[in-house]
Amino acid sequence: MCMPSEQVVPERVGAILSRLIACLPAERPVALHEPEITSGDRKAVDACLASGWISSAGPQIARLEEALCEVTGLPHALATVNGTSALHLALLGGGIGPDDEVLAPALTFVGTVNPIRFQGAWPHFVDCEDSTLGVDPDRLSTYLDQIADLRPEGCFNRLTGRRIVALIVVHVLGIPARMPQLQAIARRWKLLLIEDAAEALGSRLDGRHVGHWGDLTILSFNGNKIISAGGGGALLCQDEALAQRARHLGTTAKQPHAWAFEHDQVGYNYRMPNLNAALGLSQLARLSEYLDAKVRLHRHYNAAVADLPDVRLHQPPADRQSNHWLTLLRVPPELRDPLLAAAHAEQLQLRPFWTPMHRLPMYRDCPRDALPVTEALFESGLCLPSSPRLAP
Ligand SMILES: *Cc1c(COP(=O)(O)O)cnc(C)c1O
Fold first, then answer.
1. What is the mean predicted confidence (pLDDT) over 352-364?
2. How far is Cα 319 from Cα 268, in angstroms, rounded to an integer?
3. At residue 293, what are phi and psi to the nearest 5 degrees?
4. What atom of ligand 1 comes closest to residue 170's alpha carbon?
5. How many CA atoms lie within 13 A of 79 on its CB side?
6. Count of other CB atoms within 10 angstroms of residue 207
7. Which residues contact 39 (CB under 8 A, 6 or more apart)?
8. How far does the centroid of ligand 1 lie from the alpha carbon of residue 175, in Å?
9. For 232-250, what is the mean pLDDT?
């Protein structure tokens, strides 16, 4: 017999929720993603406090930058106050200015897009793909053929008349986007390529850490990322001149001198404090441990929901290595909000995707492609609690 769907929804939600509860520890609340603070972290922070070097100079900053170069295989790193400031420096260093357009995914955290407006430039939203959750290179290529002209001075949007100068790609939830294809598009259209790897420390593609395809790459060490410095971020790149320009602009554009304060342009105070670097460095030493834990947690969830008819766990494509920052459950749209409500009543912090950027009031009128995959992912995606400590 066929029942009206309103009566069926609570049962379907209950079936999913009981599987999730069975996966998780009994203590409540269960956060979406929380940092783990060890006694080693406390010692590192205490030692930094005892040294007196707590602010924007100190040895831990350079050590963290070196360690990030080692982990990523990239030659230059600059530690910043957060991921957003790193992205702002990437745009500054890349010369993006007023009335430029920057291609960016609509499915991302707002921190990807705000720095474009800091520069007086305009975000131009493009769609993502269902498999990697990142910018869809096939769709982007078709779209640029439709709306853009390649002139000697660069790429121009035929509809707005503005120059399109850059493409920001996000490794969503830690899954590497299709970088070789996206890099080829950026080269063909003369676009600066920026990788927003805020969620993707430890993620790899074709044997390399993410960040090797972009001209510039950013990381975040916010409290909910895979490792945290209490706050903080980093800008990474291959090109030495670009790295120096970004470092200069992020250090109040101060010219090096033993005592004189000479600044040659308007600069920013974006350097990470040594106190945060001490914590970040201590946490970074546990990255591989966390990567292992997150694979185990992903498998654990997968086994728990595998036979449920309504849901499936999102699997990163097998040809790339995600850090599994957040595990994503795909649910029928009509179950998303009821499941969120039921989970929050149990103090389990499930979370939907970010409201897509083109739906936010300040970005509503920005140029964009059709965004069907972004909309579908927003309607059907739920991020599950993914702290490393939850791994079996
Ligand atoms: C966290 C995040 C940022 C910003 O990082 P903050 O350190 O919070 O400024 C940018 N982009 C994405 C995709 C993020 O997840």
1. 98
2. 40
3. -60, -40
4. 13
5. 32
6. 8
7. none
8. 15
9. 96
**Model-wide pTM > 0.70:** yes
State how far the Cα of 19 lies from the Cα of 301, in Å rounded to an integer: 9
How many CA within 13 A on the CB side of residue 362? 10
pLDDT the model gives residue 1: 46
Q: From ligand 1's centre to the CA of 198, what distance in Å?
A: 5
**Which ligand 1 atom is the nearest neighbour of the CA of 225?**
1
Rounded Cα distance, 12 and 329, in Å:
14
Residues contacting ligand 1 via CB (< 6 Å): 82-84, 108-109, 111-112, 170, 196, 198-199, 220, 222, 233
Please give the helix or strand (H or E) that residue 330 lies within, else none: strand 327-330
In the chain the domains, ranked by start, together with CATH numbers, are 8-34+286-390 (3.90.1150.10), 39-284 (3.40.640.10)
Closest residue by Cα to residue 273 from 48, 50, 115, 112 = 48
Structure tokens at 138: 């096939």
Q: Which two tokens stand for residue 207?
A: 């044997």
Q: One-letter amino acid identity for 148?
A: A
> Which residues does residue 86 pair with via DSSP β-bridges, in sequence order?
none
What values do phi and psi take at 329, rounded to 5? -100, 135
pLDDT digits (tens, 9 = 90+) for 72-97: 999 999 999 999 999 999 999 999 99
Q: Is 46 helix (H, G, I), strand (E, B) or coil?
A: helix
Backbone dihedral region for residue 233 (phi beyond 0: left; psi -120 to 50: alpha; all else: beta): beta
CB atoms within 10 A of CB 197: 28
- Please say whether the beta carbons of 216 and 90 come within 8 A: yes
- Pull the structure tokens for residue 148: 């853009």
